Amino acid sequence: MSSNALPTAAFDGLIENLAHVLEVTQNSQPQSHEARLALFLATTAFKDGITQAKDLATALPGGELLIEEQNQVIAMLEELRDRKRQQLAELSMCALSTSSGQSTQDMKMEIDSTASSPHD
């Protein structure tokens, strides 16, 4: 897993905490001390979970970019990916046409002579 991955465990307990807050508010009498304490503890746990989740989400790389800027970066990366795929396809076609037209020995000779020739 990447070191930049969002730890989902921080988000797993949020629904449970919210459900607990709702359960306490619906099943208890607001006048009792125990009910108020249970509600306070439940809401505190939920607020702490929300704060931690927000901090983690804010700290994600790229989070400082606007959505429009993120979309531009994504488009640039997709274009780069597509160019690399095209280059690989062209190289593959070139290698196939070269290998069908020449013997392996001729190809090795051509590669060797190219590698040993000086560049100007």
UniProtKB/TrEMBL annotation:
Residues 99-120 are annotated as: Disordered. This is Mediator of RNA polymerase II transcription subunit 9. It comes from Rickenella mellea. The lineage of its organism: Eukaryota, Fungi, Dikarya, Basidiomycota, Agaricomycotina.
